Amino acid sequence: MAVITKMRATGSALAGVLAIAALAACGSSSDDAKPAGLAPSAEQSADDLAAASALDPQPGSFLHGKTTVTQLAATTPANGDVNPYAVLPVVHLGGALGAGDVLVGNFNDKSNNQGTGTTIVNVHPDKSVTVFADIPKNLPGCPGGIGLTTALVQLKTGWVLVGSLPTTDGKIGTAGAGCLIELDPTGKVAGTITDPHLNGPWDAVVADNGDTAALFVSNVLGGVKDAGGKQVDRGTVVRLSLAQTATAAPHVTGVTEVATGLPVREDAAALVKGPTGVALDAAGNLYVGDNLGNRIAKVPNALTRTDSAGRGDTVSEGGQLAGPLAVRIAPNGNLLAANATNGKIVEITPAGQQVGEFYAIHDEAQHPAGNGDLFGIAIEPSGAGLLFVGDDTNTLSVLR
Asked: Which residues form the signal peptide (predicted)?
């Protein structure tokens, strides 16, 4: 049954707080750091910090007037996988995929070890849940095994691609380079995509032309295993040129690094931090959530460029941003970024102005101020609402 909670977006200390009852299986990856962009010397509670940075959604923003969160479903399947990361509304129907379905990928297994989750569940419009794919841990062609990340896209031909950043024990020392896994519309594995430029695929976005597509993938493992916990500037975003048909799984026809030198670092709670969300606008600009840089970067001419834009142009940094993870484009053309450290979703114009925020997750019993609980987000196909997962409760919810 859906749980509906009314929320008020105001600047008070209790504004926009959603308290969701924690489920038995918790898959959260907590982060104890104070939200970036705020005074680092301030000895304040998480609630004080959140209130101090509150920004009511401005009229005309996507978040303006959205105050109701509806919990759609629990995302933990029978095998106990937790820590939902990827959120993908289905738009191309066929096989096991129907109108209104939403796919959710799990990064952890029932032991809550990072990088060991193997399942993608399908949340149906009637709020029932089925398993779309349960991928073998020893899948040939995926270096290191299976740990499903936020890199989840569907192609016009019906194929579903999901990223894997695998570990055997939830520690960076056992992490493998991973791969992209190709699934047919019934959830059956059809193959894998590997490349020297794919190293810890973390998130993805696709520009799909039907028989060809440009797939952008952020990567977070470069140099991390040998850095001894220190930050290194070896995160990347690559563009994979794909050829595809409805009957043959996509194959790579070209690879270009469009962003390089992004900061990455091992993290005891989250496994690894680095460039995460990627979003592509109609003009071909690629936006990247630079998690450790606490900013949103832009890669111009991402569809056509033949070289790297380095770290990209800074669109917005600090302010309400607090370790941005997933980044998506709202129907009004603004950017939406999911904060890692405080459970907020921040809206930003293409010019970089922060025009609103929504306190999507706040679970005092589990992680005060939503620390580490918000990850994947997605716009509903209708454009009406924003889908998001809660790692604290292993659930999918929608904001309208």
From this structure: 1-24
What is the spatial distance between Cα 371 and Cα 340, in angstroms, rounded to a whole number?
A: 6
Domain 75-336+374-399 has CATH 2.40.128: no
**pLDDT score at 90:** 98
Distance CA 94, CA 266 (A): 39
Q: CB under 8 Å to 98, separation ≥6 — which residues?
A: 90, 124
The string of DSSP letters for 258-288 reads EEEEEEEEEETTTEEESEEEEEE-TTS-EEE
DSSP state of 20: P
287 bridge partner residues: 279, 298
Q: Which residues contact 222 (CB under 8 A, 6 or more apart)?
A: 199, 200, 232, 234, 235, 236, 264
Where b means 16+ CB within 10 Å and e means fewer, 19-57 reads ebebbebbbbbbbebbbbbbeeeeeeebbebbbebbbbb
- Residue 42 phi, psi (nearest 5): -70, 125
Q: In whole angstroms, give the CA distance from residue 69 to residue 113.
A: 29
CA distance 396 to 345: 15
Give yes or no for a contact between 106 and 115, defined as CB atoms under 8 angstroms apart: no
pLDDT in tens, 204-255: 999 999 999 999 999 999 999 999 999 999 999 999 999 999 999 999 999 9
Strands 295-299 and 313-317: antiparallel
Considering Cα of 267, then 272, then 275, then 279, what sign does the dihedral take?
negative
Phi, psi of 93, rounded to the nearest 5 degrees: -90, 155
Q: Which residue has the tokens 């569907």?
A: 154
Quote the pTM value: 0.87
- Which stretches in the chain have pLDDT values below 70? 1-53, 362-370
What is the spatial distance between Cα 221 and Cα 223, in angstroms, rounded to a whole number?
Answer: 6
Please calculate the CA angle 177-166-217 and round it to the nearest 5 degrees: 55
How do beta strands 68-74 and 3-6 pair? Answer: antiparallel
Query: Whole-angstrom Cα distance, residue 1 to residue 253?
Result: 46
Residues in the chain: 400
**First vs last Cα of the chain: how many Å apart?**
17
Q: How many CB atoms lie within 10 A of CB 67?
A: 16
The pLDDT value given to residue 364: 52
Burial 318-353 (b: 16+ CB within 10 A, else e): ebbbbbbbbbbbbeeebbbbbbbbbbbbbbbbbebe
Fill in the amino acid letter for 278.
V
